[in-house]
Design goal:
511 residues, disordered C terminus, 20 helices, disordered N terminus, single chain, mainly alpha
């Protein structure tokens, strides 16, 4: 590749250093709880050490890779576009893995968790899943805030947060690789700042609303962060259901719906363009799906659990939104829920939230496009019609026609997602004594970054099960293909290093 491509490659690697420095800074934010809870000052070093380590290592990578000109004989070969995309995926994957390690260290240094459960807690936090291996009733406030803050930042993404302070032309590839399909504004930095401003505003309003509804300020800010990031960590063992408050449920539902909505649609909401929002395919599909799911779920709870109609409707609305938005807050224990209700929650978890949002799952738009394509295909097969009906949908930016490549990629992704879902479920069944239903529910929750559980995931869960669920969380948060591309890029680098001598003219192989 030529010198320009080499410089771009090294700039990409310097972005890894920037993100590591950013992660180090984020690890310090929980220390803001010490003035409010002075007893937690004993854990100061548990956060300072991971932060210092992240900043030092990240800074070294940033400085080392910011100036590639010192490498002689760089770049005799031209790098193709797929290789650049794979490298960007590898950098994003490396940043997320480092975040998992840095996020887990405070739990380990404080002696609250063993390494595997600590890593599980950090992965669940950064990926906005919400499954927990901790007894939250016995955890100091600073660590509860650490968990919630990881979810809030993980929902926004490290690349988006990085480009707020520093951005370059190469960062757009990293931005896309992290799962952000839309640029809301003409510039990448303006896009990142717009999203952060929106979520900061929603966080402030949500915290205030929950406080007015009866939560303490600490519980309110934690639940607001986790609802907006569709994370699901709670400061209470019984989650939101422990409050037994209709007003808290309603505010949390609104926050979860905001979190599962495409960033571009949220920008329209901030501008007051309600009519335009109501035309967006994902919004219409989500509204119809939720209305059907809530009605059916309420009827099941009323007829089989014999709950009053009002209570059935309240719990159905809350848990349906929680499952579809992949947040993971719960209104009550699922131990006594009918099988039909559990099955409906599973379906909602697999479908997931909006494209370009903080939610996980297959995503609403993919399901909608697949259902339309299947409808047109079935009609052609039944009627013997040769007419080809284009699949169209409405985005925040306007009406769009889905190309054949897009439809193929949609079905390919859905097939891959379901294959991983079945594989992970069977793995958990093989290495544990959990039932098929419990294994499927909790792995679907992991892969969809949901956080709901049948009780199979907790402090008592075996390390092997936690590792399988962690793999599902990472695949779900980075939408599978990013992980695959990153791993393939790493394989290419290792293969090139083993195949070629380490002479200056071959330094391009490092990239």
């Amino acid at each position: 590749m030529n010198r320009q491509h080499a410089a771009s490659a090294w700039n990409d690697w310097s972005s890894l250093g920037k993100m590591m420095v950013l992660i180090g800074g984020l690890c310090l934010v929980p220390l803001t709880m010490i003035p409010f809870y002075p007893a937690d000052s004993q854990y100061l070093s548990c956060f300072l050490l991971p932060s210092a380590l992240s900043v030092i290592l990240g800074g070294a990578i940033w400085i080392r890779c910011s100036q590639p000109a010192h490498v002689p004989g760089f770049c005799r070969e031209r790098e193709n576009r797929p290789a650049i995309t794979r490298r960007s995926s590898l950098i994003v994957l490396a940043a997320w893995i480092w975040a998992f390690v840095a996020g887990a260290l405070p739990f380990i240094l404080a002696g609250f968790l063993r390494p595997v459960p600590a890593l599980f807690e950090a992965v669940s936090g950064w990926t906005t899943t919400g499954l927990s291996a901790m007894d939250v009733a016995a955890v100091p406030k600073i660590f509860l805030f650490h968990r919630s803050f990881m979810q809030f930042c993980g929902g926004l993404g490290f690349v988006m947060m990085m480009v707020i302070a520093t951005s370059g032309t190469h960062d757009i590839r990293l931005f896309e690789s992290e799962g952000h399909p839309d640029q809301l504004m003409p510039g990448l930095k303006r896009t990142a700042r717009t999203v952060l401003a929106l979520f900061a505003g929603f966080l402030a309003v949500g915290t205030l609303a929950l406080t007015v509804c009866g939560m303490s300020w600490f519980d309110a800010v934690n639940h607001a962060m986790c609802a907006l990031s569709t994370g699901g960590f709670s400061t209470r063992a019984g989650s939101i259901g422990e409050y037994q408050s209709l007003s808290i449920d309603l505010v949390t539902i609104v926050l979860m719906l905001i979190g599962t909505t495409n960033f571009a649609v949220l920008l329209l909401l901030a501008k007051g363009r309600i009519r335009q929002i109501l035309k967006v395919t994902e919004v219409r599909f989500m509204t119809g799906l939720l209305l059907c799911a809530i009605g059916l779920l309420a009827w099941i709870l009323y007829s089989q659990l014999h709950l009053p109609w009002q209570e059935s409707l309240q719990k159905a609305a809350f848990d349906a939104v929680s499952a579809l938005s992949t947040t993971g807050f719960s209104s009550m224990s699922y131990a006594d829920w009918p099988a039909a209700a559990i099955g409906l929650l599973m379906v909602l978890m697999v479908i997931g939230g909006g494209m370009g949002s903080t939610a996980g799952g297959i995503k609403l738009l993919r399901i909608c496009l697949a259902s339309r394509a299947l409808r047109f295909w079935t009609r052609r097969q039944v009627t013997d019609s040769s007419e080809i009906t284009p699949v169209t949908y409405v985005r925040a930016q306007g009406k769009t026609t889905a190309s054949r490549d897009l439809i193929r990629s949609v079905f390919g992704y859905i097939g891959l997602y379901l294959t991983i879902l079945v594989t992970g479920t069977l793995l958990i069944c093989l290495i544990s004594d959990l039932t098929l239903t419990d294994s499927f529910f909790d792995f679907a929750s992991s892969l969809g970054t949901v956080g709901l559980s049948m009780g199979a995931t907790g402090p008592q869960t075996a390390d092997g099960v936690l590792l399988v669920e962690m793999a599902g969380m990472l695949l779900g948060r980075l939408e599978i293909l990013i992980v695959f591309k990153g791993v393939y890029s790493l394989k290419e680098i290792i293969s090139q290093r083993l195949r070629k001598p380490r002479f200056p003219e071959n330094h391009c192989s490092l990239l």
